[in-house]
Design brief:
Blueprint (H helix, E strand, L loop, with lengths): L14 H19 L7 H8 L3 H9 L1
């Protein structure tokens, strides 16, 4: 028989995972409402509430 790991206590939450799920949902909603085929980088930044300068700095490193 296989060892089955014990389940986590039901009140334990992974806050990082929940935040990522929330942001993914926001992107999905924005994509569904968009008229174009793809969201622009600026629109993604707007949905995620980030500054485009952060993205540009990461691209140049």
């Amino acid at each position: 028989m296989l060892d089955v790991p014990a389940h986590r206590h039901p009140t334990v939450q992974d806050h990082v995972a929940l935040a990522e799920i929330d942001l993914t949902g926001e992107l999905m909603i924005a994509a569904a409402a968009a008229n174009e085929d793809r969201l622009s980088a600026d629109r993604i930044d707007e949905v995620l509430h980030v500054d485009g300068a952060d993205r540009e700095a990461a691209e140049t490193s």
